[in-house]
Amino acid sequence: MESPAPNTEVRLAVAQCFRTLTTSTDNKDIIAALQTLHSYLDEGPDSRTTLPQRAEFRRAHFTRSLQFLVSNIQADWLHGLTAAQRTELWDGLFLKGPPEQALLVLMEGIGEPSTNLDHLVSITERFLQTGRLAELLWSYCQGAGPSDSPQLRETLLGRIVALPDLTANRLHPNNKPLFLPQQYYPLLATEMLTALERTCQALKDGTDCSLTFVAQTLGKVCIQGHSGQVLAVMAPRLSVCTCSDMVWQRVCWKLLENVPQRWLESVLTGLVQAVSGPDALGRIIGNLVLKNRKAQYVITHKLLLLQYKYETQVLRIILGYLSTDRERRPLLIQVLRTVSQAWANPSAVKHTPIEQQLYVSKALLLSVSLLKDSELQELRSDLLQCMLGGMQSHLDSSVVRIRHMGMVVGECLSSRMDISGTKLKFEYDQDEETQELLSLMTPSTGDEAEAEPVIGYVFFTSLQLQQDLGGFDDELTPYDMSGDQEISKASPPRYLRDCLETLISSEDSVRVELSLRVAEGLVRKNVFAAREVRLQEKFCSHVQQNIFKTIVSYLSARPQVTFDLLGSDQLVLGRLIHTLGLLMHLAVNAPVAAQMGRALLDFVWAVRYHADQMVRRGVLFAVCSVFLSINSQNLLVELSDQLFETRTWLADVAEGDPDADCRNLAVQSLVLLDKSLKKQLQDQQALGLES
């Protein structure tokens, strides 16, 4: 009689185990059935089952066996086992065999209502602690990985990436620390690195591997917003491993190439923020920007022109990456042309936020600093056109920061191009922003981590020098410094006229204090010159000639020069509206405050969507002044027909205005308006209760 086929034999044995576990009450039979299931997972030489039988069990019966155990988690036979037997026979089945099937069954069991939920949670915790995630990823990296459908793979990816969310939704405050995002995603990154290390070793041994599943896992983690936690662990390790190992470099390149297109942007965005420098980025992604159009768009356009939330170091890494390879340098020139056009665009200067303009200015200066002399000669005409047109647009702006930005960039471009030996030079107050822009013309070389040994050497040398010279300090006599006085940078005035000039016009607190200290001595020393003090008093006297008629004649005369307030003189318009807002604020509690507020709102309403941000700021300041100067009762009575429309406009500005100051002023105005309306409603309710 022929022996049954392996699949039939395994199916019958598994069915017999299920019947025993369902019907038997003998503890020995229960243990024997569980040991039979374990025998199909034993890989050692002492295994009682054959290789085809074990393969058939893993393929067709392992998931069903785990689901049977989870469904019978409250059975009496399970509670009849000792703790050691339960850990070895029941829990051990989940920690052996195909890890992807075990993880899916565990997550399915945690998601369903169960009275023994803690047991499944503890097994899942052990699953993560024993490196089963690395086994799962490695099983997909092997050439003969588990065969599955796209739907099953997508489900598995979802369970791996969203495990903290799934457990938090089920366990609520009783969630395990290992399941929290702060611990789980660094663990997942470590397991991916382990799978990549095994892949490198397998490739060195001549075995083919696939990185598709690991790349999909990385992409899905990053697209769900966890790129910072994952790449903070992976990027430093990949940077070190790719320094001297070409196999690691090829593995990293293949990993990035296999990331799905819809997730590639999030991976690259997180990677440029996690690496230490452009050299590390080049080793990890290689020439991906030349092979993948999506990667090229993200690196050369989106991260430079459309998004501006990143630090200057990110710009250095991106542009340095493009400049460090001969094949990528044409992209650097392309980026320079695009960025220079964006910087010189008059419409962009008027309508884009200042932060974005500063970001583009940094990108422009960094790109120019990375050019070679031959490339600079090729782009000379484009840069000259950019400098002239862009400087005019920036200098015409009413915002001081934008004007300073144009001056600094113009100086740097003219210095780099060295036009006829002449360089532009502007007078402006240097602050942190302008100093940072000027420093960008000196490109940094290498990655940050390479500077650590130098710092250690300098510290060691200085320490050794101190030790060598330490013996001479004891022979020196300490100098008596008890009578030293602090030397002031400003000297006190020696003449009464200088003292008066300082007290009247100076804004330096140190000079004013010194003048006050010596004023009495100067007056007593020269009584004749002290008459000038009396002459100054006439400006403070209330007895003076009334020159109001003269001023009125000047104001009422026909103006000789007019301002184009709705055209090129937007700075004057903004200051005018701001001044009217100040006058409105000074009229607080005045009888005519309500009439002034109505007139001011009517005046500024036509320019509330002005293109210039200084005008919009003035309008918002005027609206704030109206809400501050008029009490809540008069605000509802006198301006009730305008409040609803004004509130809608303020909400629109607070949500969508490109200028941050305008958004902040709009929010403050909304808060003031809501406070006034709430106070008036409370007062009316209190009056109603009293009556």
TrEMBL record:
One of its GO terms (biological process) is 'de novo' cotranslational protein folding. PANTHER family: TELOMERE LENGTH REGULATION PROTEIN TEL2 FAMILY MEMBER (PTHR15830), TELOMERE LENGTH REGULATION PROTEIN TEL2 HOMOLOG (PTHR15830:SF10). GO terms for molecular function: Hsp90 protein binding; telomeric DNA binding. It holds the Pfam family TELO2_ARM. This is TEL2, telomere maintenance 2, homolog (S. cerevisiae). Coiled coil: none annotated. Residues 325-418 form the TELO2 ARM repeat domain. The lineage of its organism: Eukaryota, Metazoa, Chordata, Craniata, Vertebrata. GO terms for cellular component: cytosol. InterPro entries: ARM-type_fold (IPR016024), TEL2_Regulation (IPR051970), TELO2_ARM (IPR057348).
